[in-house]
Design brief:
- InterPro entries: DUF6541 (IPR046671).
- Pfam families: DUF6541.
- It comes from Amycolatopsis antarctica.
- This protein has 2 domains: about 525 residues, no CATH class; about 140 residues, Rossmann fold (3-Layer(aba) Sandwich).
- The protein is about 60% helix and about 5% strand.
- It contains 26 helices and 6 strands.
- A hairpin with a 2-residue loop joins strand 5 and strand 6.
- Helix 5 runs parallel beside helix 23, helix 7 packs across helix 20 and helix 8 runs parallel beside helix 21.
- The longest helix has about 35 residues.
- It is globular, with a radius of gyration of 27 Å.
Length: about 700
């Protein structure tokens, strides 16, 4: 293990924790549920504010700017908190008092209650390790290149922010890396976070990798624990049972294939993966926001701005989930009273979110029509297939195309949780959220082109892998309810006989017996199947990193990037195809490439014109003129670029083919007049282009 193996995760952890934690402490928040749920989303919200601030002339997005913005926001929050305490007479926030709880979960003695809470803490720590380990081992090193398609744009954005210090939403994604224009809007929450991390340790690739690993691993685990605690707090359970349930949810979440591992494996859909991983924590914050908790509302609003800036589709993810939660709560007197008390502060949170993410919202509106216009990515399936695969959490996707493998233990626990809710009539909101997304996913799989599921799927490019991932977001909550409620039922059953042998009279202590059963079940789950899930997740991650099934970018690309970095002069560009490793020359070495979007960009027609016809420059004066105007000095070609889907996704359908590997305009570059080989390593060749020769052709 090297120093980098330790330093990069530590820096990433500090980046995700310090801003959000400082703001909450300044606001007087001491509720451990909120600290677990809202720290990472609030930190991303701070980075979004810092990104907007970087648009001020002379100000760059940097660690220093983030520190200044964090301190200023924390000072404002702290000042308001003091004013509320000393002038408005508002007491400092404390954790809510224990509820009486349902009769089947008796109170524990103070000693056993403390042991239960310590056990819950141990569960969470184990879960954090289990969730992080697949990424630590599967990446094979924090600077390992991601091989999937979508990560091309993500890493280019991280590199652009690092190289230029520009982080405002209207500056991202630039299609010309020299002029910064035109701009095709792309959500910036994840790139801003990754760029900051990379600036502090390891560079853009390491920053991107560690932020993904922490977000879809430990942050997701803690968010699931917080959501479980939030739901059970509404039921009125005592703190020790809430803690144990949260720990159970964390352990179950740690081994899940979805959302994080699946989305990053099948396409490299990092923003969606991170946004879904932040979702449980955000929902926990929303449903536990209390009357007159205005400073918490401000932090929640900042967190909402942060998660929206990671991926705007969370409007549907969070919005639909919370609406379903509220509808379920509206059937109870306590739920209706809570909703009435929440509305004013929730509106305050929404106002803060709208201000902090205003530019992100405006940019997203321009992309909304495009998002909903995609065709479904799966054919219709039979009802039994749709129900079975969603209930049993089959892997599916590129890893398991025949759906042989499943996370059946987690799926069965969620189903048991549904039965427990029905039998005890406690936890309807949890059942409603899980059931809603289960029905959406099933309906989408049955009828991807029309119907309720397809309508919801429009927020997610009608991509089944994205829709189905929502089910897993609520599996830990349902599994925790199952284990806690079933353990309580067993303890009640074994204590019910009127006569017990002397050695078995301890079984009448239902509280300790329930807690003991929960611990035993948790340990058993970790031992099997938890460890098996962790090992398989590590194997799946490695297929896109340490032991890739295909190579888009590798050591040859690294060598080519370094060769170009020492030769490209200011104002010169490199012709390339973004479907190979060429964009990483920009990400790591600040070498300006022509294409950062694999099929070219509609806002910059020259990008796909060159992809189609670059090698026609000896015969086509228009192509020659474009090359000279862009001052293209080098041409980057990888003869073994991976296959990707294209078809009608190409601007103006210029490709006319369903798949894409090497750009047609770069297939016959060798031997053209005015061009010579400057560098070659493996399948990667960098050609030097003689500007004078092209000018002579035009004369």
């Amino acid at each position: 293990m090297t120093a980098s193996d330790i330093a990069v995760p530590l820096v990433g952890l500090l980046v995700l924790v310090v801003p959000g934690l400082l703001l909450q402490l300044a606001a007087g928040v001491r509720d451990k549920l909120w600290l677990a749920a809202m720290t990472a989303p609030a930190s991303v919200g701070v980075f979004v504010v810092a990104g907007v601030t970087s648009a001020i002339p002379g100000v760059s997005y940097s660690p220093l700017l983030v520190v200044v913005v964090t301190v200023v926001l924390a000072a404002i929050v702290f000042g308001l908190a003091r004013w509320r305490r000393h002038w408005a007479g508002t007491p400092a926030a404390t954790e809510p008092a224990d509820g009486a709880g349902p009769a089947f979960l008796p109170a524990l003695s103070p000693r056993f209650a403390l042991l239960a809470k310590l056990g819950a803490l141990a569960f969470c720590l184990v879960a954090i390790v289990l969730a992080f380990q697949p990424w630590r081992s599967g990446l094979g090193g924090w600077e390992t290149y991601p091989q999937e398609h979508d990560t091309i744009i993500h890493t280019v954005l991280v590199g652009f922010i690092s190289h230029t210090g520009e982080g405002a939403p209207w500056q991202l994604l630039p299609l010309d890396m020299i002029t910064g224009e035109p701009v095709s809007f792309y959500p910036s929450g994840l790139p801003l976070t990754a760029a900051l991390t990379g600036d502090l340790a390891g560079g853009p690739i390491a920053g991107f990798n560690i932020v993904n690993a922490l977000m879809v691993g430990p942050v997701f685990v803690l968010g699931c624990a917080a959501l479980t605690a939030a739901v059970l707090r509404r039921i009125g359970l005592r703190a020790e049972w809430i803690a144990l349930a949260g720990g159970i949810a964390a352990i179950v979440a740690a081994g899940l294939y979805r959302p994080g591992v699946n989305l990053l494996h099948d396409g490299g859909i990092a923003p969606n993966a991170v946004a879904m991983s932040l979702t449980p924590g955000i929902i926990a914050g929303i449903v536990t926001l209390g009357r007159s908790q205005w400073l918490r509302a401000a932090i929640l609003g900042l967190g909402l701005a942060g998660i929206f800036s990671v991926h705007p589709s969370v409007v549907a993810t969070v919005g639909a989930s919370v609406v379903v939660f509220w509808l379920a709560e509206a059937f109870t007197r306590q739920g209706r009273a809570m909703l009435r008390s929440q509305w004013p502060v929730l509106l305050g949170a929404a106002a803060v979110a709208a201000v902090a993410a205003a530019a992100q919202v405006l940019g997203s509106l321009g992309q909304a029509g495009r998002t909903g216009s995609w065709l479904p990515d799966i054919p219709p399936a039979a009802l039994g297939d749709a129900v079975g695969t969603n209930l049993m959490l089959t892997y599916g996707g590129y890893y398991d195309s025949k759906q042989v493998f499943a996370q059946a233990a987690a799926g069965l626990l969620a189903l048991a949780g549904a039965v427990a809710v029905l039998l005890t009539r406690k936890g309807w909101a949890a059942l409603a959220m899980w059931g809603f997304w289960l029905l959406v996913s099933i309906d989408f799989k049955i009828s991807p082109g029309s119907g309720f599921g397809s309508t919801i799927g429009s927020f997610f490019y009608k991509s089944y892998v994205r829709v189905q991932a929502h089910v897993s977001v609520f599996v830990p909550l349902m599994a925790a309810i199952a284990i806690v409620f079933v353990a309580a039922g067993i303890a009640r059953l074994v204590a019910s006989p009127p006569k017990l042998p002397a050695f078995a009279r301890v079984l009448r202590q239902r509280g300790p017996v329930t807690a003991g059963l929960i611990v035993l079940i948790a340990v058993g789950y970790v031992a099997s199947p938890g460890l098996a899930y962790e090992h398989r997740n590590a194997e799946i991650v490695a297929q896109r990193y340490a032991k890739p099934e295909f190579v888009r970018v590798g050591e040859d690309d690294r060598k080519a990037s370094e060769w170009l970095a020492g030769r490209v002069q200011p104002g010169e560009r490199v012709m390339n195809s973004a479907n190979d490793g060429s964009t990483y020359a920009y990400t790591e070495e600040d070498v300006p490439v022509v294409n950062v979007v694999t099929l070219g960009a509609i806002q910059a027609p020259y990008t796909y014109a060159l992809l189609e016809k670059f090698d026609d420059y000896p015969r086509d004066p228009q192509i020659r003129r474009t090359i000279l105007d862009l001052n293209i000095r080098y041409v980057y070609v990888d003869s073994q670029a991976p296959t990707m889907g294209a078809g009608p996704g190409a601007p103006d359908n210029w490709l006319g083919e369903p798949t894409f590997t090497v750009a047609p305009g770069l297939e016959r570059v060798d031997g053209l007049p005015g061009i010579s080989v400057g560098f070659r390593s493996g399948s990667v060749t960098v050609y030097e282009l003689d500007r004078g020769a092209l000018e002579n052709m035009s004369s």
